[in-house]
Amino acid sequence: MHLKSLTVKGFKSFASATTMRLEPGITCVVGPNGSGKSNVVDAIAWVLGEQGAKALRGGKMEDVIFAGTAGRAPLGRAEVTLTIDNTDGALPIDYTEVSITRRMFRSGESEYEINGNGCRLLDIQELLSDSGIGREMHIIVGQGRLDSMLHAKPEDRRAFIEEAAGVLKHRKRKEKAIRK
Ligand code: ATP
Ligand code: MG
Predict the structure, then answer these.
(1) Quick one: 151 and 78 in the same domain?
(2) Which of 14, 59, 79, 163 could make a disulfide contact with 168, Cβ separation 3.0–4.6 Å?
(3) Rounded to the nearest whole angstrom, what is the distance from the C-alpha of residue 145 to the centroid of ligand 2?
(4) Number of domains within the chain
(5) Whose CA is nearest to atom 25 of ligand 1?
């Protein structure tokens, strides 16, 4: 099993649909500063179900949607598809190729698909759970992430830990409820 291709559309700096083919072995992404290399890694984390905006280097989840540039209007949705080669049957599904899609609209609504069929995030997590990929199984160490954690203010460092533990969204909800 290996990652076969990644298609991004309206995700961060990738306004137009862009497909990257991946081969077995090590993949290197090269390019000038700010050209979108880290955005490629963010796209993989996002399509696999990442729920934390901070882990995707944004302030809120909507920041993953193409925000527009001087010459191009913002878009209303982000979409990422990750295609996995399953010829060895590592994923418990009867397909030699498995595509996972995540789509998000500015309204905050999200959609997930396995091979084009709508599903829940839970279905994706279950499909990947024994395969070694997925939210808890792979490790993405973002550029400058260790540095920024070490140099962060105590309250920001706490936010990193809370997000990793999955409690940040509950604290935000609580704060919102108290404000009302
Ligand atoms: P470096 O070599 O400095 O690490 P990089 O190739 O990793 O650079 P990224 O961090 O992937 O670069 O990309 C940053 C670019 O993505 C910035 O130009 C930023 O404006 C753009 N970007 C991020 N989010 C969005 C968005 N929602 N809409 C449009 N552009 C975005
Ligand atoms: Mg980078």
Answers:
(1) no
(2) 163
(3) 11
(4) 2
(5) 12
